[in-house]
Prior knowledge:
Distance between the termini: 45 Å
Order of helices and strands: EEEHHEEHEHHHEHEHEEHHHH
Low-confidence stretches: none
Helix content: 40-55%
Radius of gyration: 20 Å
Strand content: 15-25%
Mean pLDDT: 92
Structural class: alpha/beta
Number of strands: 10
Strand order of the largest sheet: 6-7-8-3-9-10
CATH class: Alpha Beta
Amino acid sequence: MIALKDFSFRYASGKANALQNLNLTIDDGDFVGIIGNSGAGKTTFTYAINGIVPHHYRGDFYGAVTVNGLDTVDSKPEQLAVHVGSVFQDVDAQMVASIVEDEILFGLENFGIPHDQIEGRLSEALAQIGISDLRERELDSLSGGQKQKVAVAAILALRPAIIVLDEPTGELDPQSSDQIYSLLRELNRQGTTIVVVEQKIGLLCRYAKKLLLIDHGEAVLYGTVREVLTQSGRMEEIGIHVPRIVSLHKELTRRGLVSCAAPTSMEEAEKMAREAIG
Length: 278
């Protein structure tokens, strides 16, 4: 479980808190999508979970953040990394090798994975992401989207209990984006806790269980996808573009044509449309 209690953080160079008075928990097996405008504090939220804040980025740290019972202030990043696998927005910054295979081997060897398991984990991770053909490629020869897939594969090979991703589909086309999220959903079904920052809210709503809306460092909305989408007016006030099916639901409800809850998938949107036509 991830728990934030009275948590605030201000970077050493900052004039205001990047995150302000957060009190929330992410339970084991949750799939939480983090949304918000640029500069809202989404990336800092992920840093708080994996220990980058306060161990790599110094500043004023208030309250407490615990991950699987470990206090992130008292625990070293390498201790937290056993529990939390992270895929950063800037994938180039987390690459340590020059060859795809070596990038994945680096983590496996450093975490002391038994030698007889390494090949199986490496091959499985590459296959899960659909990049087995890139195994011997140089990282510098890959596209941004391919590098993102390598970064995800390197984390999957470690099989952490929690995976934190910061905009993992930023360089990916729609098909590859769905592939990544389908894999994350399957991992979540197997018990892995997923926390992901994503700009593509429509995509996120199809896969996540919960949404956390951060605005100016504060947790404005946190609940199931449906609970948050029912607050579409609040989201729009903040400047968040809600999925079009939610905007359609709002208008159809205003006209008295439907009485259903806001749809979170195309299947539910189809039922809503049939209700309106009927």
